[in-house]
Specification:
Layout lengths: L4 E10 L9 E9 L3 E5 L6 H9 L6 E6 L2 E5 L2 E2 L7 E4 L11 H6 L7 H14 L15 H13 L5 E5 L7 H18 L2 E6 L2 H7 L2 E6 L2 E6 L1 H6 L4 H6 L4 E8 L1 E4 L2 E3 L10 E6 L4 E5 L5 E8 L3 E7 L5 E7 L9 E6 L6 E3 L2 H4 L6
Parallel strand pairs: 3-9, 3-10, 7-8, 8-9
Antiparallel strand pairs: 1-2, 1-4, 4-5, 5-6, 10-11, 12-13, 12-15, 13-14, 15-21, 16-20, 17-18, 17-20, 18-19
Helix pairs in contact: 3-4
Length: 358
């Protein structure tokens, strides 16, 4: 992938009202050419504000936003939204109900004759598989089809960057999965760079080349999906991305915990109290009368069972097992933890208060 920066944010800050905390604070990242970048975070983390700043709907209080190295905002520069060559797909699609699908797509095409604009709109409707329905109105098509039209309208002016605000939130589960694949196909085929915001980690990990995690307006980590999951840099990222549990440990000759001893690859000092990150797919269990773990709950999830376990200290962890393997509540189990990476964080006092090895 070309590493050339397309959109660059440099120390961008935005506060919506005096006395409020910053919606985004010191935000810096680069969108590369032909990259799909997802911004992931809970409600209020600054995701949509970031999109609005890039689009030009909001003005930053500080920092700079650049497109191909030229400032869009900052240093006394301000480029209006319609001059930025940045397209946006809104969460509610924002289609005009009184216009046909064709006219909705043509709305953003300003230059050329009506014939040339009609031809351009039909071409992009064809790309999203909606050309045959071009004469229909938004209320006559499904939610998934409306999203395709909204995408076509954003792509029609040939934007340099496409912004997508929670693009799948109005679709049912099956349609979301289908539209993720369709969106990927369209973006790859058109070589369009995109920034997508979502609170759904499955969407972010499935669609994006890189994922940034926002927390109260601060970018905690920006990495490839696998790196984000396997090597979280902060406790917030570890807790937010994937299912996460923590086991208290003490550094002696390695990291000693109640589920085993692990290498101290990060060089924590002797005597340090730490918490070991444990994912359910890293936890093995075997029924054993004198096992240290107690099954407190089995959560059936179709392709897998998630077992909730209580350890001797009272700490709770989970184990992912095949759906065909069923253990009853109150079953004693031997617990084996094999982390793909040894990830530890400074201890949470409440976890160690349950009972540590110290």
């Amino acid at each position: 992938m070309d590493a050339t920066g397309l959109i660059t944010l440099e120390d961008v800050t935005k506060t919506h009202a005096p006395g409020d905390s910053a919606a985004v604070s010191g935000l810096s990242f680069t969108l590369r050419q032909r990259e799909i970048l997802a911004l992931l975070g809970p409600s209020g983390s600054g995701k949509t504000t970031t999109l609005r700043l890039i689009a030009g709907f909001d003005r930053p209080d500080g920092g700079r936003i650049l497109l191909n190295g030229a400032p869009l905002s900052g240093d006394g520069m301000w480029i209006e939204p319609e001059e930025r060559r940045i397209g946006m797909v809104f969460q509610d699609y924002a289609l005009f109900p009184h216009l046909t699908l064709l006219d909705n797509v043509m709305f953003g095409l300003r230059n050329g004759t009506r014939k040339s604009r009609t031809e351009a709109a039909l071409r992009v409707l064809d790309v999203v598989g909606m050309e045959e329905l071009a004469r229909r109105y938004p209320h006559e098509i499904s939610g998934g089809q409306q999203q395709r039209v909204a995408l076509a309208r954003a792509l029609a002016p040939n934007p340099l960057v496409l912004l997508l605000d929670e693009p799948f939130s109005n679709l049912d589960f099956d349609m979301r999965a289908e539209m993720r694949e369709e969106l990927l196909r369209i973006l790859r085929a058109s070589e369009t760079s995109a920034v997508m915001v979502t609170h759904d980690q499955e969407e972010a990990l499935a669609v994006a080349d890189r994922v940034g995690v926002l927390n109260h307006g601060v970018l905690e980590q920006l990495s490839e999906p696998e790196v984000l999951y396997r090597q979280p840099e902060t406790r917030f990222v570890a807790e937010f991305v994937g299912q996460s549990d923590f086991v208290a440990g003490v550094v002696r000759d390695g990291i000693e915990t109640e589920v085993g001893k692990f290498s101290n690859d990060s060089g924590w000092p002797a005597g340090a109290k730490v918490d070991l990150l444990v994912r359910p797919d890293e936890v093995g269990i075997e029924a054993c009368a004198d096992g240290e773990g107690l099954v407190t709950r089995r959560q059936f999830r179709g392709a897998e069972n998630i077992y909730h376990l209580t350890l001797p200290s009272g700490a709770q962890i989970r184990s992912s097992q095949p759906s065909t393997r069923a253990l009853a509540a109150d079953t004693r189990v031997r617990v084996t933890v094999r982390p793909a990476n040894i990830i530890v964080f400074p201890c949470a006092p409440e976890l160690h208060d349950l009972g540590s090895k110290d």
